[in-house]
TrEMBL record:
The keyword Metal-binding applies. The lineage of its organism: Bacteria, Pseudomonadati, Pseudomonadota, Betaproteobacteria, Burkholderiales. It comes from Pseudorhodoferax soli. Belongs to the peptidase M1 family. Its cofactor is Zn(2+). Its EC number is 3.4.11.2. InterPro entries: Aminopeptidase_N-like_N, Aminopeptidase_N-like_N_sf, PepN_Ig-like_sf, Peptidase_M1, Peptidase_M1_dom, Peptidase_M1_pepN, Peptidase_M1_pepN_C, Peptidase_M1_pepN_C_sf. One of its GO terms (molecular function) is metallopeptidase activity. Residues 457-552 form the Peptidase M1 alanyl aminopeptidase Ig-like fold domain. Residues 230-443 form the Peptidase M1 membrane alanine aminopeptidase domain. This is Aminopeptidase N. One of its GO terms (biological process) is proteolysis.
């Protein structure tokens, strides 16, 4: 496979002004007539036109209505004899066919449950017609859809519906058509069409800044009762973008359509967003609080792309974070702004950081490490990563930290003034934010700040304090470093905003002469605090002000003080995690560690009890503090990883907390379980989360003591719960504690929800991700794959079983007999023949194999080598396994 390099960017040799597409939709053979008006780009030397194409059958090519010579070269349609620049625009007509029903890659035009959908980002449009399929070529689209009226009563595309009606003529008796005109120019990746038997929830709104709009959420008949939350989320998104950034909805009609076959979460096609059903459908009987929150943020995310992505798009795919990092930042801010209470905002921030640290930090330290703006790729689909998205969002967040909230809004305004309607770069964005804030630290440090875009790897900040009692002086030394990543050995210092404060005696917040934000630019800095009465406890990187690893040698007493008293909720949580981590790492390092051995001391247990019983703290915050660091996070702290040791230690810690806090968990459960009307707001979902954790802990404790009361209560809760969150938490408690009631509960759950695909996904995922006991999970996973409801072609279902096992269940997956890796290699190869994008995601499960202890390391390498040896692998999977083996 050939790598594409950022430095090789060249402007297109032709522009496409207009595109007139006519589709005759048929699952077996769809006919596409593509009439374009093109002109040469005068800034580029004359050259042939090379149009991208993939899996198309070409029937006809006409230039200005005449036949012309052409050739197919490397999949591209090459036209040499085109009018010269002086002749101006010319018409190009291309007639092709494709086979949507056979499209298992779910890129381009495909069929799902009898309806047609498209997915064009990043390079799917070339599977629909020959085109300059790159984001810097923006055209005006007119689209006509023709199809059977009974099978496809709804025909949708981007923009406004200008005509529709029956099709005349022989053979068209039951056929109809719809013609759509998009008033906005767009790149091909934002094109979409949908055709099928769908129904819509509709809402007319009058926006504060714009006019009247029609919002629609299209789903399959029968799912309409699950669309209210998505619609509410959409309305809230429109209002938020107007209020926070003065960005109005620029369309008369904004549509969301749900499909159950989708490679990712959702897609921001102009005016016609296409969503995975998982991020649309919800009611209290079928969706959990987490589902409700995810829907809110994904609906927001896609809506916010309408400006950050669609109005201003990427010049090339190396700039992907321009739209994705910025839009993740915007959706995170949106979800925080919807929180009524500051504590709920903090909870959201902790959740976001947890994702960054458990998924992005490992990526930044592994074979797929790449800068937020990558320098090269083989397959762009492999670069829709947590680095581009989540780390990209942290980079934008740091900009806001450096210029302030109002300064950032001013920067956004300037960005749109300068670039509306253009395809631009990450540099253009950073420049606009800096230029709007001329006196700011960002403006002063911009070239250095932009290293966040060009250097991969997670920086480490080492902090050491020195106390001079006689002088009343505390000196804090901060040192930054960043380990080499593939292709980047030496790193220059980053600009690192460190939000900080000091806790004094009695753990009260100290007023100091130093600002609350210190901006690191050098490899080392010293910050001196004078006039202190006693040695302070530093609270650093408050709110996680930069995406770095903070090394600091706190004593237990200092961490306990921070956990109990820090005014920054993020660092309060962080102190609890550090206390747990320290104990876990000590036990993991102990070669004599035996399963079930105590890991936790009275001080730690006491501190956890205090948080759990705290009269003022929020339930959601308590749940976060009382959840131990994940096995993946623990593994990241180690140079050599024995996944079974980590699993055993974490399980021992869970069991010990369960038993030591038994009465407190009972109190927490009784206090926080409620039977009132269901609301998915942060406060009530926090209560359910804490009650769920308590129930899981009580069932776990019961496992050790042989008590049957709590498993019985969990089973009862499972049966009579009024919402999916409580029901699923109760079921999970039984499954995680391997109680004998788990089997009948699982059976009953399946029977209750056999017709609800998204709920069945949960049922599969719960079993594939359950804590391993004597290697029981892999046989269960193999059994699940034989279940009548399993379907490898459906990405959600494949993820619910295979990914839940290989990527989210380290204790079950990393087996000494290598059977987990053999299973993984078989599935990667099998999936690659169906859907390379999904296969390549699964291939990443062994990214960190070089850190594994023996015998896991050798076995993992052999599994990777077996996949790599396969002759006809997709570029997607080949890039991932080659980089892993490198
Ligand atoms: N911008 C969207 C990316 C996306 C995608 C990319 C490749 C293959 C399939 C895909 N579906 C959606 C999603 C987003 O970030 O909003
Ligand atoms: Zn996005």
């Amino acid at each position: 496979p050939v790598a594409i390099h950022r430095g090789d960017y060249q402007a297109p040799a032709f522009w496409i002004d207009t595109v007139d597409l006519c589709f005759d939709l048929d699952p077996a053979k769809t006919r596409v007539l593509n009439k374009m008006v093109l002109r040469r780009n005068p800034d580029v030397p004359a050259q042939p036109l090379r149009l991208d194409g993939e899996e198309l059958n070409l029937a006809r090519v006409l230039v200005n209505g005449q036949g012309t010579s052409f050739r197919i070269e490397g999949g591209q349609l090459v036209l040499e004899n085109l009018p010269a620049a002086e002749e101006g625009a010319f018409a190009l007509e291309i007639f092709t066919t494709c086979a949507p029903a056979k499209n298992t890659k779910l890129m381009g035009l495909y069929v799902s449950n009898g309806s047609f959908f498209t997915q064009c980002e990043a390079e799917g449009f070339r599977r629909i017609t020959y085109f300059l399929d790159r984001p810097d070529v923006m055209a005006s689209y007119t689209v006509t859809l023709r199809a059977d009226k009974t099978l496809y009563p709804v025909l949708l595309s981007n923009g406004n519906l200008v005509e529709h009606g029956p099709l005349g003529g022989e053979g068209n008796e039951n056929r109809h058509y719809a013609k759509w005109v998009d008033p906005h120019k767009k790149p091909s990746y934002l094109f979409a069409l949908v055709a099928g038997k769908l129904v819509a929830r509709e809402q007319r709104i009058r926006s504060r800044l714009g006019g009247d709009h029609l919002l629609q959420v299209y789903v399959r008949p029968g799912d309409l009762d699950k669309t209210e939350h998505a619609m509410q989320s959409l309305m809230a998104s429109v209002a938020w973008d107007e209020a926070r950034f003065s960005l109005p909805l620029d369309l008369e009609r904004f549509m969301i359509v749900a499909t159950s076959d989708f490679n990712m979460g959702a897609m921001e096609n102009k005016g016609l967003n296409i969503f995975n059903t998982k991020y649309v459908l919800a009611n209290q009987a079928t969706a959990t609080d987490v589902d409700f929150a995810n829907i809110e943020s994904v609906v927001g995310h896609e809506y916010f792309h309408n400006w950050t992505g669609n109005r201003v798009t990427c010049r090339d795919w190396f700039q992907l974070s321009l739209k994705e990092g910025l839009t993740v930042f915007r959706d995170q801010e949106f979800s925080q702004d919807l929180c009524a209470e500051p504590s709920a905002r903090a909870v959201k921030r902790i959740e976001d950081v947890r994702v960054l640290r458990t998924a992005q930090f490992p990526e930044d330290a592994g074979p797929m490490a790449h800068p937020v703006r990558p320098d090269s790729y083989v397959e762009i689909n492999n670069f829709y990563t947590v680095t581009v998205y989540e780390k990209g969002a942290e980079v934008v967040r740091m900009m806001q930290t450096l210029v302030g909230r109002d300064g950032f809004a001013a920067g956004m305004k300037l960005y749109f003034e300068r670039h509306d309607g253009q395809a631009v770069t990450c540099d253009d964005f950073a420049q606009a934010i800096a230029d709007a804030n001329p006196g700011s630290e960002l403006a002063r440090l911009l070239p250095q700040f932009k290293r966040w875009y060009s250097q991969a790897g997670t920086p480490r900040v080492h902090a050491a304090g020195q106390w001079d009692a006689a002088a009343g002086r505390y000196t804090l030394t901060l040192t930054q470093s960043c380990a080499p990543t593939p292709g980047q050995v030496l790193k220059e210092p980053f600009v690192i905003p460190v939000a900080l404060g000091l806790l004094g005696e009695g753990a009260q917040e100290l007023a100091t002469q130093q600002p609350a934000l210190f901006v690191m630019t050098e490899a080392q800095h010293q910050i001196v605090f004078e006039g202190l009465a006693a040695e302070p406890v530093p609270s650093l990187l408050r709110g996680f002000s930069a995406p770095v690893i903070l090394d600091i040698d706190y004593s237990d007493a200092q961490l306990l003080a921070l956990l109990a008293h820090d005014s920054d909720p993020f660092n309060r949580w962080e102190a609890g995690q550090r206390l747990a981590l320290r104990r876990a790492l000590k036990a993991i390092a102990d070669d004599g560690f035996a399963a079930g051995q105590p890991v936790l001391d009275a001080a730690f247990v006491g501190a956890m009890r205090e948080v759990l019983r705290h009269p003022q703290l929020d339930a959601a915050f308590k749940e976060l503090v009382l959840t131990l660091p994940s096995e993946t996070y623990l593994a990241e702290q180690l140079d050599v990883v024995d996944p079974q040791r980590i699993h055993a230690v974490r399980e021992a810690m869970r069991a010990q907390l369960a038993e030591a806090l038994f009465e407190d968990w009972q109190w927490a459960y009784e206090e926080h379980r409620d039977n009132g009307a269901y609301q998915p707001d942060p406060r009530s979902s926090g209560r359910r989360a804490l009650a769920g954790l308590a129930l899981a802990q009580l069932c776990l404790a019961a496992r050790a003591s042989g008590d049957t009361v709590w498993p019985g209560k969990a089973y009862q809760r499972f049966k009579d719960a009024g919402n999916m969150t409580d029901r699923f938490n109760a079921l999970s408690a039984l499954v995680a504690s391997a109680h004998e009631l788990a089997a009948p509960a699982l059976q009953r759950f399946h029977a209750l929800f056999k017709d609800e695909a998204l709920v069945l996904d949960k049922w599969f995922a719960l079993q594939a991700g359950s804590p391993d006991r004597n290697g029981n999970v892999l046989p269960a996973v193999k059994q699940l794959m034989k279940h009548a409801d399993f379907n490898l072609r459906n990405p959600n279902r494949a993820r619910s079983v295979i990914f839940s096992y290989c990527s989210a269940n380290p204790g079950g997956f990393h087996r000494a007999d290598a059977a987990g890796y053999v299973f993984w290699a078989d599935r990667v190869i099998e999936l690659d023949g169906i859907n390379p994008q999904v296969a390549a995601r699964l291939a990443r499960a062994l990214d960190r194999w070089k850190k594994l202890a023996e015998p896991y390391r050798t076995a993992a390498r052999e599994a990777l080598a077996r996949v790599a040896a396969k002759a006809d692998l997709s570029n997607d999977v080949r890039e991932v396994v080659n980089r892993a083996l490198d």
